[in-house]
Amino acid sequence: MTVKDYAKDVNLSVAEVLKKCQELNIAVHTKDDYLTDDDIIMLDNLINLISTDDETTFEEEDVIDDKVDEILTSSTFDKEIKESVTKEKLKKKDNKNEKNEFNMLKKEMYKHKNKLMSNTTDDIVLYKNNMTVGELANSLNVSGTDVIKKLIGMGLMVSINEPLEFENAEIIALDYGKTLKREETQDVANFEEYEIIDNENDLVKRPPIVTIMGHVDHGKTTLLDYIRKTHVVDKEFGGITQHIGAYQTMYNDELITFIDTPGHAAFTEMRARGASVTDIVIIIVAADDGVMPQTKEAIDHAKAANVPIIVAVNKIDKKDANIDRVLTEMNEAGITPEIWGGDIPFINISAHTGEGIDLLLETILTVAEMQNLRANPNRYAVGAVIESRVDKNIGGVASFLIQNGTLRIGDPIVVGTSYAKVRTMKNDSGKSIVEAGPSTPVEITGLTKNPSAGDKFMAFETEAEAKSIAEKRETLAKINAGKQKGKSLDDLFASINAGDKEINVLLKADVRGSEEAVKSSLEKITAGGIKINVIRSGIGAISESDVILASASDAIIIGFNVVASSSAKDLAKDKNIEIRLYTIIYKLVEDMEDAINGLLDPVYEEKVIGAAEIRKIFKFSKIGNIAGSYITDGLVKNSALARVIRDGIIIASDDKISSLQREKDSVKEVKKGYECGITLEKFNDFKEGDIIEVYEMIEVPHEKS
Length: 705
Ligand code: GDP
Fold this sequence. Notes:
Elements: H1 3-10, H2 14-23, H3 37-51, H4 58-73, H5 79-91, H6 98-110, H7 113-117, E1 124-127, H8 133-140, H9 144-153, H10 166-175, E2 179-182, E3 204-205, E4 209-214, H11 220-230, E5 246-251, E6 254-259, H12 264-272, E7 280-286, H13 293-305, E8 309-314, H14 323-332, E9 346-348, H15 357-371, E10 374-375, E11 382-391, E12 395-404, E13 407-408, E14 412-415, E15 418-421, E16 424-426, E17 435-436, E18 441-447, E19 456-459, H16 463-480, H17 489-495, E20 502-509, H18 512-524, E21 531-539, H19 544-552, E22 555-560, H20 566-575, E23 579-582, H21 585-599, E24 603-620, E25 624-637, E26 641-646, E27 649-662, E28 665-666, E29 669-671, E30 675-680, E31 691-700
Parallel strand pairs: 1-2, 4-6, 4-7, 7-8, 8-9, 20-21, 20-22, 22-23
Antiparallel strand pairs: 3-10, 5-6, 11-12, 11-19, 12-18, 13-17, 14-15, 14-19, 16-18, 24-25, 24-31, 25-29, 25-30, 26-27, 26-31, 27-28, 27-30
Bound molecules: guanosine-5'-diphosphate.
């Protein structure tokens, strides 16, 4: 039996078993090394002792082990403990077995575990996410080369800057007599996931960041232009604004930041890259045109991002404007206006005449107020790239939106996997500035590599820190390169963990009737408590916008009697999103069910593979009885399960073959018509004439719901 199998059997980690082997001087080093029967008996002994006290944690157990050693060698240990141990020792002084003495002392230690636990922090080393070999060596106060040597001994070829998994780091730590514990804090190198926790006293109000979405020609650009021209912040540069991907405007002495790339493609693309910068979405609907396909898409995107929505009903200056129709159609699309008892403000505007725009800005500030948007200007900046380009003369130029903190000229920053120093910085009026606080868009130079829109950036105190973070990100990026986020039906289901029982699907169909039929069939599937959540359903070909939404929402795309546009296909390939096309509903439902079933815990069924008749018993003092057998049916495998039948009655069940021998050699399997020696893991009391029936557990498909 390997260390790994044994660990599984006794419900301990491999590291813990290896530690115990070390205590017992058993010469094993890796999870794949084999334990002899004697080893197992010794280990069982040790572990049984532990189970005499269910309240004892493994952590306590480790401490106790160390303290037992200490007692055996030291004369100055706690008097009370020492006395009771000595008493216990005297009681059993006839017992000469060293191992037993160790175990006996250990048992005694459990009585004092609370006392022992109070003095142990020196032995605990913290494991940070993606901790590198070098960092582990530092924490253990040993040389990196020593750690690398040990890792090589375990079959791991790693360099000093490579991250180590917890399990491997734990074995190394144990080797140095330390206990490794996972640190609760996060890894700043993974700054996309890093949650910044600021001191309450440092937090100040920050301007809201707003994105405008809506159908083409409904007035997004006109509205953005109007607001920019009429509510300029920097009067000195009056009106002459630079396009840097976002701009700020002043209303009632309060700043508002607008993302200058209208439309949901950019919005969702950024979200898909982990940069959820938008605080409020304005959905613009032209009153002369009403709700159009891209209006609905915009609603889906805003809802998927869980961002507050304000509806701007535009072009009310036009003769054929019909505001009521917009209210009705938006309500039908799931956006209930405030005046109809919902919670979405509708503001009537004209981006041409400016009518209603002040009210729109006021509403933005009210919604922002309710969100209580705050940030800490006293920290190094974090934020997202909104645009980037290469300038012939100055090289890489990027627009950043600062989400928290303050960015200053000269700050070392990390974007993607490269680091740089901010060389120059301009605001949206083209004015050079030296620092920029939360919610401010800036254009900076100094980058060595061109980042992508939606990439996150983070500033650091020193260049050395930025450099090491960038290097670590590079390594992590390489490791993660194979594990792309994109979705296929298989990995979508496979990636769902027990707590997350919803699967996102984006559905496109040929006609309304089939859209509804497919949607309701999908929503009815509930195999294993897993629900299918249709995040968008619509009619028509699968578009790029569908792919972007699917990518941002971890969804797969299903097309029913429709195809995908070639640009959507390319994008889906790029983003690793699976598009599945169907023409028959039951086939679609069947595939989804099959995939879900693949996720459920497997169901096993017994399959008898062979039988052996015991002809002669060989008795050995060390390993017990070996059943000299003749295979009467099928075959016997050394890994198979077994039961023993005597006179047609099962006398031993749920057993396992522990060894299978032909002559003196261990073999993997023996076929019908041959003789062999069999031992079982549990049952040993064989009689001639007994039948050993051998079976395997085979995984069977789940029943369809
Ligand atoms: P976008 O595609 O959503 O960015 O729409 P645009 O801002 O380019 O506007 C499309 C057309 O509608 C342009 O010709 C604008 O001049 C016009 N437009 C935009 N807003 C209004 C408005 O409030 N009233 C009128 N009459 N025309 C508008």
